[in-house]
Amino acid sequence: MATYAAGTIVYFYHQARLCLGILAAPEGNRWRVLDRDGNTQTLAPERFVLGSDQTYPPPEPQSLTAFDRDLDEAFAKLDQQDIWTRLSRLYQPFTFAEAVQAAGSSDDAARFALYRHLRQREDRYLLKKGLWRLRSEEEISLYLALKEEEAARARYLEDVAGWLERIGAADEETSTGPSAAKLGGEEEFRRQLASELRGLLLDNEPKDLARVLRSGGSSLETAIRSLRLALGDISAQTDPIAAASGIPVAFAAGLAAQAVAPASSEILDCKAFSIDAEDSADRDDAISWEETETGWRLGVHISDVASRIPLRSGLWQVARDRVASLYLPPQTIPLLPAELSEDAFSLHQNQLRPVLSLFAELDREARIRGFAWKRGWLRVTKNLSYETVDRQLREEERSPLLDLCRKLHDARVGEGEERKPRYSWNLQVKEDEVVMRRVDDLSPARFIIEELMILYNRLLAERACQSSLPLIYRNVTQFSEDEDEENFGIQAYLSTEARFHSGVGAQAYLHATSPIRRFTDIVNQAQFSALLAGVEPTFSRDQLGELILHIEKRLRLLRMVAHRSERHWLLRWLEQKHLGEPLDAVLLRRVKQGYLLELSRWEKRLVLRCEEGLPLRVPVKLVVARVDLEELMTYGDVVI
User: Which of 161, 396, 572, 603 is 20 to 30 A (C-alpha) from 349?
Assistant: First the structure.
């Protein structure tokens, strides 16, 4: 270990900078070190990377100034190419003492100059565990590329800091903050920043961006929201739970232009119509049917989205990242840009659209006598709503199509009682008012569409299994949370292996009927289209397995966002319309904050903050006194 005395000049690192100092006096097992300005630091000897052989009294800044002048002169005289040549002759790696001898650096100033040279030219010299060696040409190129990346990253973070500063200035002048257009910036910069801001919310990465945002004076969450608003990545109307989650909301400009026209030019000759919710903006399925002498000829037509999205395009990547459309009380966050999901890909009446169609021949008992698949163009004759079709069916004495779907249903699951509840309640936000809307999930029109989509999905799965085509299947497993095992639940999962699906009574089942809304359906559609064309499928089984891991992870996130969003707007609804009003409820179980309960009429769950012991699974009256939108819980009383 080196020994030091007062007046020794040393190199040491401070805040990642190589510094020159002179030892003034020992303090215990440390040394007081002076710089040229007379500033003092107390350092352990282990901090010194190089010390002078001589001492330079007095140990004051003036002595250091004189040495620093000699050091600069010695450094200026260095012939760097000659040094490189000499060091290249050494056995690699080498010590600093060997470098000093090879370079002929005899005095302290020359030694310090050589050390500065070695550390300043990190592109040419590598220091590892106290030994030096010369980098190869390939290593030099890699090092320079890395340094350029680091410099580019530093410039990027400076630009982000500049944005934050301008946002703060604009917030002081206006109440709305700056627009994305006023802030400017290259499109790639804006796209990268939006992605990284979402990454901070999702995974707390990247850390260097988080440090820049925190340095602006606001909380990290506030800075992220301000920047996302300025970028147009979210808006003031975005669902607050979705905005805070980090999931993508807005689409990059020009993304829809990446869609292409499919190769098929055949026009399908059939009268097809669609049935959707009255306020539906996207229509990805239509049906056609006609009676024949022996039964029915049925057509189920699905928008051929997979043929419109080039593989590995930005549009494909966006669909992969989003995985599914997200339906929240105040808004829908779609899988694809509105120009596509609500227009170019949507089966609007009187518009030719490419489809992947199932044509099935059925007898009078709805037994399938044959079926075939076709790709082509379809012109839907009418877009109908569930409400319109239900009214028409009520006015008819008999509906052959409804009869057909009932027979298809009975053939699948038997004639037992339907297990699904008839009604569900959906929260909607209209002009800041939260409303509760009742939906008849077993209405005749919804029943028709559900049954025909099941038929399409299970026949496609059946054909794929026969052909050993790798697809993403939807399987289920049963479980019970009760000890008596009387109440069973069903858990769905994705797999490349087909299993019996007890929920629909099919030997194999998958999703392929909502490609505008689900990425899984796009993948299955692309795979199946390859089978019909007689070419290799887009994805291998292993590649689909990797996709499944990504899809299921994102689906868990979307379910969490949907759950928290519904809880948020349920509390807003209670706050607007039912504070102080006795509501029928059932306490389901104890949770950390109090009780999880269900509002009996609407079958909606929320958390009640309550410390007292209350009976479970019995009807009670809940009186909500106030709601906490931050913690997503209620405060109030329970009357038994």
Answer: 396
**What is the band of 182 on the pLDDT scale with cuts at 50, 70, 90?**
very low
Give the tens place of pLDDT for each residue, 85-141: 999 999 999 999 999 999 998 899 999 999 999 999 999 999 999 999 999 999 999
Query: Between 352 and 185, where is the model more confident?
Result: 352
- Measure the CA–CA gap between 50 and 118, rounded to whole angstroms: 13
Could you tell me if 511 and 522 are in contact, meaning their C-beta atoms sit under 8 angstroms apart?
no
pLDDT value at position 486?
47
Contact 295, 362 (CB under 8 A): yes
> Which H or E element spans position 570?
helix 541-577
Band of pLDDT at residue 414, cut at 50, 70 and 90: confident
Task: Write a three-state SS string for 311-361.
Answer: CCCHHHHHHHHHCECEECCCCEECCCCHHHHHHHCCCCCCCEEEEEEEEEE
Residues in Cβ contact with 468 at an 8 Å cutoff, skipping those fewer than 6 apart: none
- Closest Cα partner for 455 from 627, 228, 302, 609? 302
At residue 54, does pLDDT exceed 60? yes
Lowest mean pLDDT among 214-218, 269-273, 522-526, 627-631: 214-218
Rounded (to 5) percent helix, strand, coil in the chain: 40, 25, 35
Q: Where are the domains of the chain?
A: 8-138, 139-233, 257-558, 578-639
Both tokens of 169, joined, read 């200035």
Q: Is 527 exposed, middle or buried (0-12, 13-18, 19+ CB in 10 A)?
A: buried
DSSP state of 374: E
Classify 558 as helix, strand or coil. helix
CA–CA gap between residue 211 and residue 596 (Å, rounded):
38
Kindly list the distances between the CA atom of residue 229 and the CA atoms of 160, 166, 176, 203, 413, in Å, as whole numbers in the listed order.
14, 13, 10, 20, 50
- pLDDT tens digits, 289-299: 998 889 999 99
Mapped onto helix, strand or coil, the DSSP state of residue 278 is coil
pLDDT, position 187: 84
The answer for residues whose C-beta is within 8 angstroms of residue 526's C-beta and 6 or more apart is: 306, 311, 537, 538, 539
CATH number of 578-639: 2.40.50.140
Asked whether 353 and 264 are in contact (CB, 8 A), the reply is no
268-293: b (≥16 Cβ within 10 Å) or e: bebebbbbbeeebebbbbbbbbeeee
CA dist 283 → 29, 204, 272, 304, 520 (Å):
78, 37, 13, 12, 17
pLDDT digits (tens, 9 = 90+) for 543-567: 999 999 999 999 999 999 999 999 9
Classify residue 530 as exposed, middle or buried by CB count within 10 Å of its CB (0-12, 13-18, 19+). Answer: middle
Tell me the average pLDDT of the chain.
91
Percent of the chain surpassing pLDDT 90: 79
Statement: residue 366 has pLDDT above 70 = yes
Give yes or no for a contact between 374 and 359, defined as CB atoms under 8 angstroms apart. yes
**Residues 530 and 376 sit within 8 Å (Cβ to Cβ):** no
Non-local (6+) Cβ contacts of 79 within 8 A are none
* Nearest residue to 123 (alpha-carbon basis) of 100, 139, 102: 139
CA–CA separation, 358 and 368 (whole Å): 12
Query: Model's pTM, two decimal places?
Result: 0.84
Return d(Cα 614, Cα 187) in angstroms, integer: 57
Give the chain's radius of gyration (CA, Å). 35
Residue 154 DSSP class: H
Beta bridge partners of 287: 273, 300
